[in-house]
Amino acid sequence: MKVARCPSCGAPVEFKSVVSVLAVCDYCQSTLVRRGEELENLGKMAELIEDRSPLQRGAEGSWQGVHFGLIGRIQLKYEQGLWNEWHLLYDNGKSGWLSEAGGEYVLSVPLRVTEALPPLADIALGQKYAISGRNFAVTNILNAECVAGEGELPFKVGAGYPAPVVDLRDEQGGFATFDYSDDPERPLVFVGDSVDFKSLAWANLREKIPLPEATVKARAFNCPSCGSPLAVAHGNIETVGCRSCGAVLDTTHETVRLLARVSAQIEQPRLPLGSKGKLRDESIEVIGFMRRCMSADGVDYCWDEYVCLGADNKLLWLTQYDGHWNLARVLPRAVLTTVGSVTYEKQEFKHFQGYTARVAYVIGEFPWRVRLDETARVDDYVAPPRMLSRETTDNEETWTLSEYVAPEEIAAAFALAEALPKPVGVYANQPNPLEERHRRVCRRFWQFGLAAVVIHLVLLIVGPGGTLFKQQLNFDPQDDEPKLTGEFKLAGDGNRLEIAHRTGITNNWLGLNLTLVNKDTGQSWQESREIARYEGVDDGESWSEGSRDDEIVFGDLPAGTYVLAIDHDMDAKSGRLSAELSVARAGPRWSSLILLLLALAPFPLWTRVRRGSFEVRRWAESDHPIVTSGDDGDD
Amino acid sequence: MARLYAIIGMLAVSVLAWADYRGVGLFDDMAHSQPNRLNPSQRSTFHK
């Protein structure tokens, strides 16, 4: 570490990093450039704009096991707002940058690239570049400007210093910046990753030590359009929308300037500005309200967007359309699009609709420059209950992930006294309430089916059913003696006996008179059967009728010793016929199993149809309606 | 509906288990004759 004296006030000025060439004096804000052993004073650095950042110079953290400290920062401003670039010094002597914008944090390091990169003029949104083996896509083209700085910095910079930069992202949360500040033809490249604030193991954050002098104080003023009293209660607010007349005001200067007036009827937000609540483990505060509209077939469809501040100064949105609510946040990564769908976190989102959104009016505080009637092309992709929205302007592409929230949850989160209106119709990413029911019924169907198959197979193998004996029989037209089988026993009451004959007869018939005798009780049961099978060829076409086989079941037989007598009747001209007799205790029937499955199948089919009708209603509002052959009716 | 289906399904599987155990089939060709007593000559035939 090198310590020098400020040539302006004599205060000590530290250079912790060897790469630092510039330092801002903490006492007199002189911008000091290191020239060998001497410090050159470039004049006063502009004061930092208070921005509610939880970070400060001197804060320390750790990334991938390497400790670092924040030794400087520059504040940059572009047309949509303000962001910080914190200069880091790692314990291993390397330096890097922590970008802080809208609650999103990106760690990056300068990278020397061998690939030829395009000049700024040739850059366009969506262009893809491979940098050190990673595939990035251009998501932002910014004409930023440095507005202030503090501490140590590795280059010369001052207020008003232009910083044209291009942001790129990849699908894994990787981040790259092309910095054209020095040369619009050859950019400096910084590559890094989007990081979770809490994962950096912070110490010496701003909350734990006395806040700097320039704390945010509620700034009160009157609307220059209607005279209503207004106030800015948060830092880093660029625009305020008057809740009385809808006038849009620039609050970045001491004197509030009127940017635009609104002719539309202003509706007060259902969630009052300043409302604080806890929604899905996220503490949020509503600071702004925006009404946006789209037009389709000459009709305006409008929805509400509530701008909220979450933990760590993160920007969140609550959106509301026809009673349907979503909690949305901007994604720190690019999303791969294919035709008709996108894939995010291994989940496929289907394209729902594309439209042009327009800002109708705003109320409250906004940390970016809001422009009335500003338009953006929006494409929504849905995978209920989530929705991805790609919003594209001339120089920016942002992806927002929304999650459907029931109105009751919103009302509970903000402890609203009155219930919110019930949702109307089906929203793009509204969870299908019939999906879970269909899933449960399907699960039951397969459980019952599996249970039935197992029961059936077990009883087939170890059940009481099964063949008692088989016997070959020969029938002669000249032989009129009945044929007796051997004795067999049946235990218990209510027995079912299956008697089957398998013959090989063709164009013949065989009559059988069966007498089943219980020798113990002297009871007998008689049945007559006829087996007939005829076949031939007529006019070149073969035909057949009848069957060579026969089965009959004797039911409700008591226990006892049985014998079967078979008397036969056949054509006197027929030759000798043979048959295989099979006597069995009746067992499981495959037909019963199939019947059971058929009886249970209509339920999942019905719930599937019902689920489908909900999806038809959902997609009816999209660019890709589901075409049905008939009216699906209501759910 | 899922609850009703669970009840119906359990009943249906129970009926199947009973039918499989007893060898009952919906499409069985059943003998309808009533049991008779053997006459003396038949008795001698079957009690040889």
Notes on the structure:
The complex is a heterodimer of chains A (635) and B (48). Helix content of chain A is 11%, strand content 49%. Chain A contains 4 helices and 41 strands. Chain A has an 8-stranded antiparallel beta barrel with strand order 7-8-9-10-15-14-13-12. Chain B is mainly alpha-helical. Chain B has helices spanning 2-22, 40-46; one strand at 36-37. The longest helix of chain B is centred in the first third of the chain and has 21 residues, at 2-22. In chain B, 21% of the residues are buried. The chains are: A mainly beta (635), B mainly alpha (48). At the A-B interface, α2, β37, β39 and α3 of A face α1, β1 and α2 of B. β37 of chain A pairs antiparallel with β1 (36-37) of chain B.
Give a brief description:
The complex is a heterodimer of chains A (635) and B (48). With 635 residues, chain A is mainly beta.
List keywords for this structure.
heterodimer, A: about 625 residues, mainly beta, eight-stranded antiparallel β-barrel, eight-stranded antiparallel barrel, 4 helices, B: about 50 residues, mainly alpha, 2 helices, about 5% strand
Taking the sheet with the most strands of chain A, its summary is: 8 strands, antiparallel, barrel
Rg calculated over all Cα atoms of chain B: 21 Å
Termini distance of chain A?
72 Å
In DSSP terms (H or I, runs of 4 or more residues), the helix count of chain A works out at: 4
Q: Which consecutive residue ranges of chain B, at least 5 long each, have pLDDT under 50? A: none
- Provide the residue-averaged pLDDT of chain A: 88
The fraction of residues in strands of chain A falls at over 45%
Low-confidence stretches of chain A: 208-216
Helical content class of chain B: 55-70%
User: What does the overall shape of chain B look like?
Assistant: rod-shaped
Q: Look at the helices and sheets of chain B and give the structural class.
A: mainly alpha
Total count of strands of chain B: 1
Structural class of chain A: mainly beta
3D shape of chain A: elongated
Biggest sheet overview of chain B: none
